[in-house]
Sequence to fold (149 residues):
Amino acid sequence: MAATDGGYEPSPWKWVRDQVETYERTDGREANTLMNTGLPIIIMTMRGNKSGKVRKTPVMRVEHGGAYALVASMGGAPKHPVWYFNLKADPDGVMIQDGPAPFAVKIRELEGEERALWWDRAVAAYPPYAEYQQKTTRVIPVLLAERQT
Fold:
């Protein structure tokens, strides 16, 4: 089942709800950066692994060669964000919106040298990721989203 099938349940966080709504309404022309940082974001659409509801989450835009790194940092919290578990539960049912039109992606978690390469790209795009890793004992997951063909 595609991530866009079924009922959409907006985030309980007002800033996330507002950003997703504005981004989608304007085809990504507005609300396309993280708050006041000027750094670009994308919108992930996935299905909740417990609720089955459609979820939409803005994440930092870390793109290279048409693929996207999704960094499950949660600001360096001791646990993974809920969306990490959603992606792991249904890696083929995810959509990314980077501009006007969402597209289907396949998700896989990175390890070893490939993770290190994408981690460096992520830190270059959003330097606080390095600080987040220092704040936690867990290894922050890096997942790769590649377009489905």
Notes: The chain has four helices and seven strands. The two ends are 17 Å apart (CA to CA).
